[in-house]
Design goal:
- The chain is of the alpha/beta class and about 375 residues long.
- Helices cover about 45% and strands about 15% of the residues.
- The protein contains 15 helices and 13 strands.
- It has helices spanning about 15-25, 45-50, 70-90, 105-115, 130-145, 175-180, 180-190, 210-220, 255-260, 270-280, 295-305, 315-320, 320-335, 335-350, 355-365, and strands spanning about 1-5, 35-40, 55-60, 95-100, 120-125, 145-150, 165-170, 195-200, 225-230, 245, 265, 285, 310.
- The strands form two sheets. A seven-stranded parallel sheet has the order 3-2-1-4-5-6-7, with helices on both faces. A six-stranded parallel sheet has the order 10-9-8-11-12-13, sandwiched between helices.
- β11 (about 265), α10 (about 270-280) and β12 (about 285) form a beta-alpha-beta unit.
- The radius of gyration is 21 Å and the shape is globular.
């Protein structure tokens, strides 16, 4: 069996796919198989995928937009070139199935697979479907594939004609998070077993708003916690502050550090919230909002808030108000029963094993 994967542009469109690939490798260990990835020939896609041990094929990728700019025309040429490049790859590599994790790079390979009669499976990580997923649905329908959604409520955004081809899977999480060891996280950080850890995730590139809040409210945050701050390479960390561990980017150790943390603070991208949920971690979320986003992080955050696994602070609630922010963190720190309830809610959500569900469906046709 030859299984092709596609998706990219951000880690959030790659890491869940790698989680599915991990499970497929386990299930196909006694069989002849091949798993490869089709992604953008520019950007981070190749390094992440090859770093996970998968064969990677690069194609031209043009960004998909709902509006016209001067970049629209050259991007359309890249999309067309990406279609023909992906078609050649799928045909030459004799792909039996294509699994898409979304992102603008996924549309040409999904279209190419449909043109060759290769079944297309696609997964949507966020609460409401993005443009790439909406475009890829026609290829799922045409090839008799399947749509996987992270949230049951997402089904209402999808065409009724596809409802019998939808599976609620949760967001796939890599095995490293489900088997993480908190003692390894503490050893990496140089912290003892009694240290209470607040893990701040500004994202791989940092989140300026989150980083500023932490800087402004650090003294209060350190009242209860050792603050471990992934701040991104462009943020100036505060030097010499007791109880503060700044790190530009946490790489392979992230699952263990996450497991060691008592409370997670960050944005609400699909990867962050589901990796935290898989480890049963309470969350304080500050979703990205405004004109630069379609609102998916707000929707993700509100779901976890409704389920009792997170508290949400909006940009207007925290903008210029480190006092309000740090007061909220300390209120959670001082309420043990509330933390335990949030952790239990997170564990309940995170028990939905997307990688297992999707890999079973790809191989065995389970619903």
């Amino acid at each position: 069996m030859n299984i092709a994967f596609t998706g990219g542009g951000t880690g959030g469109h790659i890491y869940p796919g790698l989680a599915v690939a991990e499970r497929l490798k386990d299930k196909l260990a006694e069989q002849q198989y091949r798993i490869f990835w089709i992604g953008s020939n520019a950007g981070m896609d190749r390094s992440i995928v090859e770093g996970a041990g998968l064969e990677f094929f690069g194609i031209p990728a043009g960004r998909l937009r709902r509006y016209f700019t001067l970049k629209t025309i050259p991007d359309m040429f890249r999309v067309v070139a990406g279609f023909f490049a992906a078609r050649r790859i799928l045909k030459k590599q004799k792909a039996d199935i294509l699994f898409s994790k979304g992102g603008f790079v996924s549309v040409p390979p999904c279209a190419a697979a449909a043109s060759l009669g290769i079944p297309v499976f696609t997964h949507e990580s966020d609460f409401s479907p993005g443009l790439a997923t909406k475009l890829n649905l026609r290829f799922v329908r045409k090839t008799g594939g399947r749509v996987f959604v992270t949230y049951a409520d997402t089904i209402r955004f999808l065409p009724h004609s596809l409802h019998d081809r939808i599976t609620v899977s949760g967001n796939p999480v890599r095995r490293a998070f489900r088997t993480a060891d908190p003692s390894k996280g503490r050893a990496f950080l140089g912290l003892g077993s009694n240290e209470r850890i607040l893990l701040v995730l500004g994202g791989s590139q940092g989140a300026k708003e989150v980083n500023t809040l932490v800087s402004d409210g650090l003294k209060e945050l350190c009242r209860h916690y050792t603050v471990v701050h992934q701040h991104g390479p462009d943020h100036q960390a505060l030097p010499g502050t007791k109880g503060y561990i700044p790190l530009p980017y946490i790489k392979a150790e992230m699952p263990h550090v996450l497991a060691a943390a008592e409370l997670i603070l960050g944005r609400s991208g699909a990867g962050t919230v589901w990796e935290s949920a898989a480890l049963g971690k309470p969350m304080l979320l500050i979703p990205l909002s405004g004109s630069g986003t379609r609102g998916d992080q707000v929707e993700n955050a509100r779901f976890f808030e409704r389920e009792g696994a997170a508290m949400v602070l909006t940009a207007t609630e925290v903008r210029g108000s480190a006092e309000n922010f740090s007061r909220t963190v300390n209120a959670i720190a001082e309420d043990v029963s509330r933390q335990e309830a949030m952790a239990e809610a997170a564990r309940r959500i995170g028990s939905l094993d997307g990688a297992e569900i999707i890999s079973d469906c790809i191989l065995y046709g389970n619903n």
